[in-house]
Design goal:
Blueprint: H1 2-10, H2 12-25, H3 27-33, H4 37-52, H5 54-58, H6 61-89, H7 95-105, H8 112-118, H9 124-146, H10 154-182, H11 188-209, H12 213-219, H13 221-249, H14 255-262, H15 275-278, H16 281-293, H17 295-298, H18 300-303
Length: about 300
């Protein structure tokens, strides 16, 4: 079994693309799986935490300080600068601008550490950004809400953020505990097998997230193309800008932070938006999965040009 999972890990990028294809080809299965997304996400976090271990995830005091600074830049400074720029230019908050602002203000997606693993880099910084970014979201989101007139009750977002943080801490805590008391030292084969399991979990999760894309392919193809291009520009463009900036300034490995910069859990904010605002954004949510799951394939040349 471990050898089979290690084989899946070696072909992880292909596995993610299979998940995307299945989400498009099997809309009925996507509808059935959609209620299980929270459980699948919790399983993914558990596997990731177990694979990394509590010592590497915690890092040093310098690591935590760097993580806090980067969370404040990614989730607070960037969306505020973006929205203030729109205001100074006299531009309205269109659905596209709203999506960009939500992405910039959101914490990392749960799969960021797994994408980092698939690209051959240390996943611990991405996991720290996920946990700390989600924990600080109720605070970093407040100034952004003041600049977004479309928002409803911010308390709903705070509640959703706290629920998400609870899931993250519970799943990660169980993974860290099992690693600490049950398997402190993993062999290379064990790690590759765990990587294979996470690839399978990611491929399954994306099927459930693609339910809005298939109908748009036949009913609104032009709108689908627009949001698909927007998703690639926001996700991959954000990653590239972050990577080039961090590489120019030197310091720690820029890849984990760059992956987080483009892959954000913006759907968390949907609970605070009225339905007339979120309806057109659901297509973007499905389109956003494409650059997200293609990150290990499309960004490999930039992150590892050798």
């Amino acid at each position: 079994m471990q050898q089979a999972l290690a084989f899946v890990a070696r072909h992880g990028r292909l596995g993610l693309m299979v998940g995307l294809a299945a989400g498009l080809a099997l809309p009925g299965l996507a509808a059935v799986m959609r209620p299980w997304i929270p459980q699948l996400v919790a399983l993914l976090l558990f596997l990731t935490a177990f694979r990394i271990g509590p010592v590497d995830a915690a890092g040093s005091l310098a690591d935590l300080t760097r993580t806090a600074r980067r969370v404040l830049v990614l989730q607070l400074a960037l969306p505020i600068l973006f929205l203030l720029g729109l205001h100074l230019l006299g531009l309205p908050v269109t659905p596209l601008a709203l999506v960009a602002a939500l992405v910039l203000a959101a914490p990392s997606v749960t799969g960021s550490a797994n994408f980092t693993i698939l690209l051959g880099h240390d996943p611990a910084p991405a996991l720290r950004l996920l946990i700390l970014g989600t924990a600080l979201l109720p605070l970093t989101a407040i100034p952004v809400f003041w600049l977004l007139p479309a928002f409803g009750d911010p308390a709903e977002v705070f509640g959703a953020a706290l629920r998400l943080l609870t899931v993250i801490l519970a799943a990660a805590g169980c993974g860290f505990a099992l690693r600490h008391w049950g398997a402190r030292h993993l062999s290379d084969l064990n790690r590759r097998a765990l990587d294979g399991l996470t690839v399978i979990a990611l491929a399954v999760i994306v099927i459930a997230l693609m339910s809005a894309v298939r109908p748009a392919m036949t009913e609104r193809p032009g709108e689908l193309v627009f949001w698909l291009l927007a998703a690639f520009a926001i996700n991959l463009g954000g990653q590239a800008l972050c990577f080039l900036t961090l590489r120019a300034t030197g310091g720690a490995d820029p890849v984990p932070t760059s992956i987080v910069a483009g892959n954000r859990n913006f759907a968390l904010f949907f609970v605070a938006l009225p339905s007339e605002v979120t309806e057109p954004l659901l297509i973007f949510l499905g389109c956003y999965q494409f650059p997200m799951y293609l990150t290990p394939t499309l960004m490999r040349r930039l992150y590892d040009p050798r």
